[in-house]
Amino acid sequence: MQAWIKNLISLHLAADARESSEALLQQVFQAIEQGDSCIMCSAEQAQQLQGVSISAEQAAAQIIAPFVFDGRLLYLYRYWALEHQLAQALLQLKQQRVQSVNLTAQHLALLSDGQQQLALQMVAEQGLSIITGGPGTGKTYTLARIIAVLNQAIPDIRIAMAAPTGKAAQRMKEALQNSFNDVKLQDLVSDNLTRLTPITIHRLLGLGEDQRPRFHAKRPLPYDVIVVDEASMLDLTLAKLLFSAIAPSTRLILLGDANQLASVDVGSVLADLQQVPLLAENRVNLITSHRFDGEKLIGRMADFIQQNETAQQVLMRFEQRIAPAGLLQAVALAADMQDVVQLQYLQEDLQRDHGSTALSAYYDQLMLGFKDYASALDVYLAAEQDEPSIKNIVHHFDDYRILAAVRHGGLGLTALNQHMEERILKQTQQSKAGDWYTGRPVMMTYNDYQLGLSNGDIGICFGRRQAGKINYSVYFPSLQKWVAAARLPKSMETAYAMTIHKSQGSEFRHTAVVLDANAEQLLSKELIYTAITRAKKAVSILAAPAALASAMTVKTVRTSGLIGQIVTKNDTLCQ
Q: Is 314 exposed, middle or buried (0-12, 13-18, 19+ CB in 10 A)?
C-alpha cells in the first residue's frame, strides 16, 4: 500500500504537498486496519489532496476518486460509498410500510417487563426494529414471543433467521427452540416455527466465493420478516449488502449488545444506529437482566466494566466488589450452582520461555476446566464408536473454553492450544496420527463452500476403527455434520483456546480469560466485557495486573461518518 500511495501522490500532487499528503493518506489506511471507516481531517489538509480526492457532493453525483473529503472526515472512496449506500438503505427501511398487527392484552402479557412489551409494539408497527440489551435481558426470549405473535397474526408468514457466524446461528437456534417450548406459547407456535433454522448472513444472501450476493436490491430476499442476531458483529460491507436486499414490505429485526466488540472488519454499525436520533422510535434497549441479577457475580462484573473507573482504582475496587485475587481452582459445574468469578495475577517477572516452570503451572491450572472433557474421551476410547459418549464429549467440550486476547507469546493462543493438546494426549494416552487424534477440537478459518463449512465453525475429531485401521472424521455439532479429516484444510486451527473476537456469538458455562502483558495495548472494555459475558456460570481470569486494568478502563471508539450520512441523507429527502 505504501508504494501505491507514493505513486499516486507523485503523479497527481504538487511537490510541496507530497510529504504531508503521504503521511495523511497513510493515516487513512492505518485507521481502516483498526476498524475506522475514516479519519478526522481539516479543510486545509484536504485542500492539499486536490487531484486525488473529491468532495462528498461530487461523490454523491457518482464522480469517482481514490479519496473523499466529507466535512471534517477523510475516507477511502470505498468506505464513503458503503456508508452512503447504507444510510440510503436505512432510511428506506425506516419508511417501510408493513402489514399492521393488532396486539391484545394477552399478547403483551406474554412478556416479562415493560421494555420487552415496547419491543413487541415496535415490531408490530415498524419495518425496522433494533432490540438491544446486555446478557440475560431476554433478547431471545422477547424475540420468540414477537415471532410467535407475528406467526399467528399474518397467515403464511415467511421468516428468516440469521447471524454473522455459524456458531452464533446455532446458539440462536437452541435458544429459540427452548423459548418456543414454553407452554404459554403453544397456541401460537406452529410446526413451521419449530422447524426454523437460523443460518449465517452469508448463506442468507447467497454470497459465494466471488462475494457477489444472490440477493440484492433488484432481487430482494423473499421473506416477510428477517431477524439478525449478534448485530454488533455487522461490519459496513455486510450491513450494506443485507440492508440493500430487504424487500419493500419486509420487517427487519436486529438483536445485539453494543457494549460487545464491534465487527472485525471496518465499521461499528449497531453502535452507530443506537446514536441516531431519527431512529429513536425504531429501537428498544432491554435493561432488566433475568439471568444475572444483582446478587450474581457475572452480572455484577459486566456492570462494573461499564463504569468509569480510573486505572489506579479499578483493580482495588474489582477485588473489593467482585473477586479477590488468589489462585485459580477447579470449578464443579452444576445446574443450580452459584456464579463463580476467580482472579489470579500473573507473576511480574514471568519468563517468555514456553517451557518455564511458571508457565507450566499456569497451563496446568487452565487444564483443570478440561478434566471432564478428558474423562469423556477416555470413555469413548474404551467403548469405541459409542454414540452416547460422543454426545457426552460434545457436552463437556461446550462447557469450557479458554479465551485469549493475542495469538503470540507464552500465554497467547498458539501456545495455549499446544499445551492443552499435550495434556489431553497425555491424559488420554493417545498419540497423534499426523495432526489428528480423538478429541482434537478444530475451527474453520475461512468459508469453504464446497464442504459447506463457515469461518468459525468448530468440530471435534473422532477416530473410528474400520477394517483394522483407525479413520478420523470430524463432527460439527452446530451443523450435525461429519467430514472426513483428510478432506479438511491444513489451515484448521486447534480450538481448546480461541480469541475473544472469535468467541462472539458463543456461550459456555465456564470461560477462562487470559490477558498477559503482550495484550496490554490491544485491550479494551469491549474486549473484556465480551469475554466474561460468554460465561453462564463461571469466569476464571488469569491476567497481568496492568493488562487487566487496561481492559477495564480503555473504551474503544471507532471513527465513523455513518450517523452524519444518515442525517444528511434524511435532510436532503425532506427538502
A: buried
- Residue 2 pLDDT class (50, 70, 90 cuts): low
b/e per residue, 348-361, with b = 16+ CB within 10 A?
eebeeebeeeebee
Residues 426, 485: contact at Cβ < 8 Å? no
Confirm if 511 and 542 have CB atoms less than 8 A apart. no
Say if residues 258 and 134 touch (Cβ distance below 8 Å). no
How far, in Å, are 126, 144, 153 from residue 107 at the CA level? Answer: 17, 12, 11
d(Cα 156, Cα 175) in Å, to the nearest integer? Answer: 23
CA-closest candidate to residue 149, choices 115, 184, 183, 120: 120
Residue-wise pLDDT for 392-407, tens only, equals 999 999 999 999 998 8
Q: Sign of torsion, CA 243 176 281 302?
A: negative
- Which H, E and C letters describe 326-365, residue by residue? CCCCCCCCCCCCCCEEEEEECCCCCCCCCCCHHHHHHHHH
Do the beta carbons of residue 139 and residue 255 sit within 8 Å?
A: yes
User: Grid coordinates in use for 401?
Assistant: 473454553
DSSP string, 174-192: HHHHHHHT-GGGTTT--HH
263 DSSP assignment: -
- Cα separation of 207 and 222, whole Å? 16
pLDDT digits (tens, 9 = 90+) for 273-320: 999 999 999 999 998 766 555 457 888 888 889 887 787 789 999 999
Amino acid letter for position 218: K
DSSP secondary structure code for residue 82 in this structure = H
What angle, rounded to 10 degrees, do the helices at 525-532 and 545-553 form? 100
User: 433: which DSSP letter?
Assistant: B
Q: What is the pLDDT of residues 436-456, one digit of tens each?
A: 999 999 999 887 878 888 888
Q: How many helices (H) and strands (E) does the chain have?
A: 23, 20
The pLDDT, as a whole number, for residue 401 is: 97
CB 178 within 8 A of CB 215: no
The C-alpha atoms of residue 517 and residue 245 are separated, in whole angstroms, by 44
Lowest mean pLDDT among 112-121, 169-178, 236-245: 169-178
**Amino acid code (one letter) for 329:** Q
pLDDT score recorded for residue 418? 96
Low-confidence winner among 14-23, 246-255, 307-316, 565-574 (lowest mean pLDDT): 14-23
Q: What angle do CA 256, 259, 264 make, to 5 degrees?
A: 80
Residue 538, pLDDT > 60, answer yes
pTM (predicted TM-score): 0.85
3 state SS of 498: strand
Residue written as grid cell 434524511: 570
DSSP per residue over 500-519, as a string?
A: HHHHTT--EEEEEEEE-GGG
Say if residue 490 is exposed, middle or buried (CB neighbours under 10 Å; 0-12, 13-18, 19+): exposed
Q: Cα torsion for 69, 90, 271, 206, to the nearest 10°?
A: -100
**What is the rounded CA–CA span in Å between residue 251 and residue 97?**
9
Chain position carrying cell 486536490:
50
